[in-house]
Structure formats: C-alpha cells, structure tokens
Amino acid sequence: MLKVGLIGFGFMGRMHFDNYVRLASEGEPVELVAICDLRIEELKNGKAAGNMATEQEVYDLTPYRLYDNIDAMLEQEELDIIDITLPTPLHAELTCSLLEKGLHVLCEKPVARHSAEGWKMAQTAKETGKTLMIGQCLRFWPAYAYLKSVVEDRRYGAVNAGYFFRGSGLPQEWFLDGEKSGGCILDMHIHDADIIHWVFGKPDQVSTLARNVIPGSGYDTVSTNYVYPDGKVLNAQADWTLGGDYGFSMTYRVNLEQGNLVFENGELKVNPNDASGFVAELSPDSGYYHQLKYFIQSVQAGTPVSVCTPESATGTLELIEAEMRSADERGALVSL
C-alpha cells in the first residue's frame, strides 16, 4: 500500500484529495494519510476557490493526520509519495529535498518558476532513482489525449492548423503576484503550450503578443503563434481577466487534411471531410483522476513514467520563457 502525504490544501490540493479518496475506494494501492499546509487550521474549515468544482465545499479531515510543518510530517509519518500542490516558487527546492530523502514526488504544474530549476529537479530524480512526475493534467484529459492519438496515427492526415484557448476570471492571492506565479502566461496558458509541445513537438520559433492588465500580475492575456518547419498554423490564447458571469472555458479546434476536431463546452466533435460528424466517446473522468491513477500505478509497478516527465515539462517551461521574451519584444520571433 502506497502511503501519500499531501502538501498544500488549497483548490488544487482538494482536487487531488478527491481523487485519492476515489482511487482508494476503487481498490488502487494508495492511502492518503497526512495533509500539510501552513494554514491547515484555517483551511480545514474553509472553502477553496478554483475554476472547477471540487467534490465538497468544506472537507471533513478528521480521518487524516494534519500538519502545519513539512519536517514534522516527514519525521512522524512513513510515507512513500509526496504530492506537492504549493505555489510555483516552492516546487524546485522542496521536490529535490524530498527525492533525496527517498520519496517519490508528484509535483503540480508548472514544474518550477524557472527552467534551470526544472532541469535540476529532473537531474535529482535521475540521480536518486525516485519517480518524479509533473502534473500537466491536460496530457491525461480525455479530449486532449484523443487529439494526440489522431495526430499520431494520422487517421485524418496531417495537421493544417489549430487554435487553443482557455480563459476565466481573475484568480486570487499569490496568483496575482507575477514574480511568484509568472502571470497568466505561466500559470494558465502553460496548459495549452504544453499540449502543443506534447502533441506537435517543440516549434522552431514563437511570436507572442501579451498584455499586463492587473498591475504587478505579469502577462494577463496572451496570444502566441507557433512556427513549424511544415508550415502548419498554430495559435494558443489565454486570458484570466474575463469578468462578469463568464466562468471558465477550455477549447480547441484542429484542422487536418481529411477532417477537423472541435472541443468546446466539454464535448469533442469530430468532423471527417467524407463522412458524417460525430461526438467522440470519451471517459467522463477528469485529467486529474487519470493522472493520479497513472502515477500511482507507475510507482507501484516500479516502472518509469513516460507521460509528464520532468524533462518534458521543463521543455514546456522553456517554451513559455521564449514566449515571454517574445512578448517583451512586442511579438518578435524568438527561436528555441
């Protein structure tokens, strides 16, 4: 039985919590035993806002051992896995320390605040022989996994063009400190940049237009064009300043030689050029669920992860850093 300690109990921590509970109930060899957060006494009786609904508003944490100090949790618990859902600047040093202590680590995206830290994390995992996976959850999201399979097996030919978008209202607290979160371009837009990297490979160049709307928050709205040798036209946009009743959206449209895929409002429509369109049959479970299940099974079997490796996630962070440099130069082409 793999024993898990969860560090961070904000929105993402609760999302992971929900899925650990479900996976354990389904017979996966995992048990969440401890939760650590500096504000655990406050958070255990409060709500955590996010762009998707968690299973509960207020959680009953009485079955779990609670800590407000990481060292205390590590001293008093016998753990196999640590799940990190802390603010981005805290990822690198903590991850390396935990790996060196002999623990497997699942670390939320982005891998780190800067790519140099991401490469250090990847090297530490390699040296210690422990499993490190980065929570780029869209790689496990059914609609995006379907897209990757279509591109790889070329059932509708080569890709001509694609467009990706995600947007929401403003996040809260540390997210609006650009020095910590990296702004929308690093925290939100990185999801679609990661899918572009994962599905199509690294582009040769990027050109990014971006704007700071909220003082101090970094780039809040972003649009990037990705340049590939074969000339396909790819663009990804993100905006977390969509107010009013907008809510949250994640969509894509990919046009291929023999058809197109359109994902919006949680439904993936496949439109072959020579046949009737249809709605793809996808798992109803979120990428968070599939991600944690994959990670647990990999650790249990002692097999390396091949999805969301620290090396690949750091490559995506390098892509975002190139986009930031392009945005700083008002859309200048930046080579990778």
Notes on the protein architecture:
- By secondary structure, the chain is of the alpha/beta class.
- It has helices at 11-25, 40-43, 70-76, 91-100, 115-128, 142-153, 178-181, 183-187, 190-200, 287-301, 310-328, and strands spanning 2-7, 30-36, 65-67, 81-84, 104-108, 132-135, 159-168, 205-211, 221-227, 233-239, 248-256, 259-264, 267-272, 278-279, 334-335.
- The strands form two sheets. It has a nine-stranded mixed beta sheet.
- A hairpin with a 2-residue loop joins strand 11 (248-256) and strand 12 (259-264).
- Helix 5 (115-128) runs antiparallel to helix 11.
- The longest helix is centred in the last third of the chain and has 19 residues, at 310-328.
- The chain is globular, with a radius of gyration of 20 Å.
Please, how many helices?
11
- Kindly, what is the distance between the CA atoms of the first and last residues, rounded to a whole number of angstroms? 43 Å
Instruction: Tell me the strand order in the biggest sheet.
Output: 14-13-12-11-7-10-9-8-15
Q: Structural class, please?
A: alpha/beta
Main pleated-sheet profile? 9 strands, mixed
The topology string of helices and strands comes to EHEHEHEHEHEHEHHHEEEEEEEHHE
- Unreliable runs, pLDDT <50, ≥5 residues? none
Q: Which word captures the global form?
A: globular
Query: Strand-residue fraction?
Result: 25-35%
CA-atom Rg in angstroms: 20 Å
Helix content: 25-40%
How many E strands? Answer: 15
What's the average pLDDT? Answer: 95
